[in-house]
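Methods — Computational structure assignment.
A single polypeptide chain was analysed. Its primary sequence is given first, followed by the predicted tertiary structure written as structure tokens.
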Amino acid sequence: MPTDILVLLPVLVPPTAAAVAVLLRSHRRVQAAWAFGAMLTSFVCSSLLLWTVWSNGRPIVYQLGNWPAPFGISLVGDLLSATMAVMCQLVLAGGFLYALGCRDQCAQYPAFYPLFLMLATGLTGAMLTGDLFNLFVFAELLVFSGAALTAVSDDKFGTEAAYKYFYISFVASIALLLASGSLYVSYGTLNLADLAQRIAADPSPPLVLPAMVLLIIFFMVKGAVMPFHFWQPDFHTAAPTPVHAVLSSVVVKLGIYGFLRMTTLLFVEQAETIRAVLVVVGAVGVWFGGLGAVGTYDAKRMLAYSTLGQLGFILVAIGWGTPLALAAAIVYAFNHSLLKAAMLMLAGSVASRAPVKTAAFAAITGLGKKLPLAGVLFLLGGMGLAGIPPLNGFVGKLMLFSSGVEAQAYLPLAAIGLAGIVTLVYVFRAFQRIWWTPLPEDVKPKPYGDRLIAPALLIALSLALGIWAEPLINLAQATVAWMATPEWYVRAVLGG
């Protein structure tokens, strides 16, 4: 098998399996098993892609239709895109596993698993595409499938949340289209490698700065970055548990991936300006998300606000821009994806035991008394988010703070360091209310609920990466070394 097919398979397997899953709609268990098997297959393919790229030291490029770049559509598996694809598909596989054991009525709908597979297609394709317009195509597929999965939620506010997400994403899509048009008018291409080469040679066209601003807006909306975060808490609170566990952990990483590409490939000369913006919005986001999590009334909503704060740490690291800071951003993003998905699954599992399924603290206070294993997992996940050893969150936060000292960025370092304490406050506050507070006498929890195997596996992986962090750190450092020389990306895609 030619190696270039490895970059195509993670994008091709999910939609192909989705089409077959539609035909299996009258056989729910067969459809669910087929979809889960397809997701695992896609994850194995993306893992093989990452291993091949890392071991060979060069990216894998697939030119669709054998049209040479920049005239055709390129799929590019370099260390950054392959790492992000593996991270996303790992959590997506966890989301599928949770869906198999959850009791949401929407998970029984014939369209649920096909839509979930299309969500995987959009996210993976967005990470692997080498073309700006096809980033728009995959991002739209992500929006349509995510909005549809939220609209069918058991939560009565699911439809409202889906409309909010759809229309706010529509604004982001307009920003991306305008940015694409501006760059095409200026340089006659939308291939990322070709654009990087042409922008570096001549950054003077008047539409380059507006295009850069529009791309920043697009990635901020996709990443739920403050001040473009306002859709996120409502959306993730109302979505089905297996869906919002993915949306709040890896879908928002599209914004992180975009900022890494912007500052290390597309706009290298203008990167300092972008990084300055990221440091400010990241530091503010850490506090805003943390305080929002402390003051909210719902466990899922708390974790949604927590995502705003955790993403702030990653943005600050990208803003510092040193090799250590960028490696810290990748490690932190990987860890956050695992733990945030697991924590949201745990909140959903507890909510599934409530007499009326909801994650509102008023309804789930004391329910943890019946779920000791979930309590242990929640405590471990919270420790990881707060950066307490031995989970991998400690490794990412230690690298982040070390990079701040190295960059002599003492003011933002102090700001995010103090804000990190807030994470402990809201995590242990939630733990105390759910697992330590006595169960009210008039509350009769359901004898069954969502299974815990998926969050247990994700937290176990974070624990393993905390105890043996060397492979992930080495991968992050190799990825940063690759990003430091954008000419390598250009040559890999365009040849020469």
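Note: The first strand starts at residue 60 and ends at 63.
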